[in-house]
Amino acid sequence: MNIENIDRRRFLQLGLLSSSGVLVGSLYAFSNREVKKEFKTYDDLRHYDWGYVVDTTRCIGCGSCVRACKIENNVPDTFFRTWVERYEINKNDVVRVDSPNGALESFQNNNFEKDVEKAFFVPKLCNHCINSACTQVCPVGASFHSPDGVVLIDKEHCVGCGYCVQACPYGCRYIDPVKGTADKCTLCYHRIQHGEAPACVNACPRNARIFGNLKDPKSKIRKILHQRRYGLLKPDLGTNPKCYYIGLDREVK
Amino acid sequence: MKDKSHIITIFSLVIIFVIIGFIVDWFLHPESFDKYGHYRWNAVNEILSQKVVNQNIKTCAKCHDNIYQLHQKDAHYNVPCVDCHGAGNLHVTFHQGGKDSAKITKAQAVIGKKYTLEGCLFCHRKLKSRPSDFPQINQEEHYKFLNVKSLSTKCIECHSPHEPIFLLTDVKESRLHPIVYKCTDCHDKKPVRDFNEVPDHPKIFECKDCHSDIVKSFDERPHHKYVECRTCHLFHKENETVGRMYKNGNAKFCLLCHEKKDFKSDKYPPKIEWPSHLGNLKFLVNVDQRICLDCHSNQIHKMNLKANSNPHPNNWKFEHKKYVNAKSDVKQVYACGFCHTKNDCYNCHQVEIPHSEDFIQGGHKDVVAKKGKQVCAKCHNQDFCAQCH
Lengths: 253, 389
Known about the structure:
Chain A is of the alpha+beta class. Chain A has a domain at 44-131 and 171-246: 2-Layer Sandwich (Alpha-Beta Plaits), CATH 3.30.70. Chain A has helices at 8-34, 42-45, 64-73, 133-137, 163-167, 189-192, 199-203, 220-227; strands at residues 50-55, 82-90, 95-98, 116-125, 143-145, 151-153, 174-175, 182-183, 209-213, 230-231, 243-246. In chain A, the strands form four sheets. Chain A has a four-stranded mixed sheet with strand order 9-1-11-10, with helices on one face. A three-stranded antiparallel sheet of chain A has the order 3-2-4, covered by helices on one side. In chain A, strand 7 and strand 8 form a beta hairpin. The longest helix of chain A is centred in the first third of the chain and has 27 residues, at 8-34. The termini of chain A are far apart. The model of chain A is unreliable at 32-36 (pLDDT under 50). Chain B is mainly alpha-helical. Among the domains of chain B are: 2-48, no CATH class; 165-296, no CATH class; 303-340, no CATH class; 343-389, no CATH class. Helix content of chain B is 41%, strand content 4%. Chain B is built from 22 helices and three strands. Chain B has a three-stranded antiparallel sheet. Chains A and B meet through helix 3, strand 2, strand 4, strand 5 and helix 6 of A and helix 2 and helix 8 of B.
């Protein structure tokens, strides 16, 4: 067909055909991209507000949670998203705190030979504060609160400046030596959205870690927070942690 | 109008910079940033796509139901599978089949078993910082107590990990026992006086405060040197006021100490061969339903049994009082026949035991005529016959 011989009708027909072809093709291309996987929408997530309770009176310091977290999230050696601290106080009010290798292989011997007045374990993890210091200092918006109240890190966007590691008053963040980005506890975000408990809660043999939805009035965590007396870590900093500790001692910081 | 033109220049420059700024922002702004806040919304979905590694106990129960049932009834019911067996994600995807299973070799799918000595001690090593109601051992003392020769002997040689203390009854059916005692736990009625007004009224309650008879007789028996009440009457604190009491009398539980094994020396405690011990008890029926306490309860508290005088020790009536003194409907259940076959009784007594219904009417005359009055005296008092004759 010679392009100079084309009349107006034929031109319009061709134009319509080619544009509809582009439209169908692009629709097909876009639909393929959308199919990738169906995830939760923003409104789905607004139904939740995840909270965490640590019952220090029940913890036996076995380190199952630490091991489970390492495997679940592929946490590099010498870094921990959750760890267990041991507090020992003797008769003269001398306090010794230790956490050998984050309690990855539990604890060996008592620190004091004798005269231990009081001793207990405190498991620690990210407190998922409501007014978190770490998200405020992020210069690129890579650290953020998810709609269901979990403090997360966008690892694709993070530049690894380390401000958040400095800002966290609980020492819950680290720079991943492999990727060079900040990393922290996500409350096993991939598990909780599929109805599973976080790996540490799943692994705890003593029910010392309780996890649940604070927005659901019937949830177990709400019941416990109503019945038991709990404390927060460093409440004076005004970070409003969402990790509640039952049986907290004044020595614990 | 010279002034006006340079104002226009400035304004147009500003507008150009703003437009350039928008264009640069358009290129640098990540997709879905600022959609719902100052972050990349797609990052949430990226984090969500991470794979679940640690498996839930319910996933394991789908295939290994028999072990799950066993595990749920015993003291380790709260310990999830992942603690000892590892995460198990490869194992599950391999056996579920589907696309992903082809990538996993059979060797990778084998589940790990971390039943090392150290693995058990992660939880059960004796530490001051562990809650006192949690079972914990000093390994050296524990092995010395049982006369285990080598310190590297594994815990699983005696304790089954799924069923560590062989509870007789299900954990969940065990009895609730109060920790803060009410007056009515010991007294029949609520006392008029407050306990502070009573001199020498105990404040910290021990077993003997309520169960004095049993504890007193327990102190006279050989066991009291080595074990406590809590060794068999396991106590598990549930909350501030209440705990769970499980009574443990399973034969396998007694065998934890008393079974003869290669790694134990022959010193105390007395040990028996198992299961050949059961083979010696041919006079018993329902042997597999028997527990050690059926015969040996007197070793623990109350009652004194002369050794090796089964089935009729000197105080057999006292020993069998549960069966002898029971009310009639219970007696039928616990009659001698529950443990002993009819032939067992007849072989010695030459009389049908328990006696048939017409025994008093006529049957006993023939027996006495044949065997003499001594037959009656074996069980009954000497003046028993004189009551009628």
